[in-house]
Design goal:
Order of helices and strands: EEHEEHHEEEHEEEEHHH
Strand content: 15-25%
Oligomer: single chain
Helix content: 25-40%
Length: about 290
């Protein structure tokens, strides 16, 4: 068994959530390490995502309007305090991502802002994907964020699969991993941030990446954590197969794209008054 250096904050997960968590923890002055099952910066669903986030950037928008849209989309199931925090900090987070080197698509020196399902204002911004394969648009986030971690000398380890969380005196004390050769690696840490994604690989068909297999969830459960809302597993409703196999952005519906069934019928209005601008959960059930 090998033991890696002890740290203040251990981040497990090498996609967008893990990278931003590591950078934020580093900014707080903590000693940080990031460990990922897949290569860092090429992990999880961020890799195949459309490279889009939402932020309040337009003059006719506001955090309160954003919050109202989130409440409506959440159908009474949101965590109010966390959702409010996200809505009211979205502009700040957008600028922080820019500070970390993320470039967003712009025209004539102005960030392009689009509108998509569930939003009554334009607040979708997409990363600049110049030189990036369309099916891996999320690299527009992960490449600069990985570079930012390396510039700050945050240790990044890929190829280590989480097997269990370590406990001592009723508290989380670290984590255990197995590497590609079967060797056990341990890290002791005061705080652990699980950014390991969901567990959609439990299903026979999924458009999530293969490494989204619930490692973090089961490790937390085995360590005594309470898992809340495990039924909230959501697939992206649409999948494109030609001319490229990719998950299309919901921004397409804001530009007039529609869904049709095998009979060429535009069916979304049968399920929601917003039609093809309905939220993803409604669209998934309708399909």
């Amino acid at each position: 068994m090998n033991k890696l250096n002890a740290v203040d904050v251990l981040v497990i997960g090498g996609a967008l959530a893990g990278l931003t968590a590591a950078l934020a923890a580093h900014e707080s002055g903590a000693r940080v390490m990031l460990v990922s099952k897949a290569p860092v910066g090429k992990a999880g669903n961020t890799l195949i995502a459309a490279g889009v986030i939402c932020a309040v950037l337009e003059a006719d928008d506001s955090p309160e309007l954003f919050l109202e849209n989130l409440r409506a989309s959440g159908k009474g199931l949101i965590e109010e305090a966390l959702t409010r925090k996200m809505a009211y900090n979205s502009t700040k987070i957008f600028h922080k991502l820019c500070e970390f080197g993320v470039n967003f698509a712009a025209a004539d020196g102005k960030i392009k802002v689009g509108k998509s399902s569930g939003h009554n204002r334009a607040r979708n911004v997409q990363v600049n994907t110049d030189g990036i394969p369309i099916q891996n648009a999320g690299l527009g986030f992960m490449n600069p964020l990985t570079k930012a971690c390396l510039e700050r000398k945050i240790p990044l380890y890929g190829g280590l699969r989480l097997t269990r969380l370590l406990t001592a005196e009723g508290r989380i004390a670290g984590a255990e991993f197995v590497d590609g050769s079967g060797e056990i690696q341990q890290v002791t840490a005061k705080t652990i941030i699980l950014a390991t994604g969901g567990y959609s690989k439990l299903f026979g068909k999924t458009n999530n990446t293969a490494d989204v297999s619930g490692d973090g969830t089961i490790a937390a459960l085995n360590a005594g954590c309470i898992i809340k809302d495990p039924e909230q597993v959501q697939f992206f409703p649409c999948m494109m197969f030609t001319p490229a196999k990719l998950v299309p952005s919901n921004i397409l519906f804001g530009h007039g794209a529609v869904l049709r069934n095998a009979e060429r019928k535009q069916f979304m209005y049968d399920y929601d008054p917003q039609g093809d601008m309905a939220t993803r959960d409604v669209m998934s059930r309708a399909i």
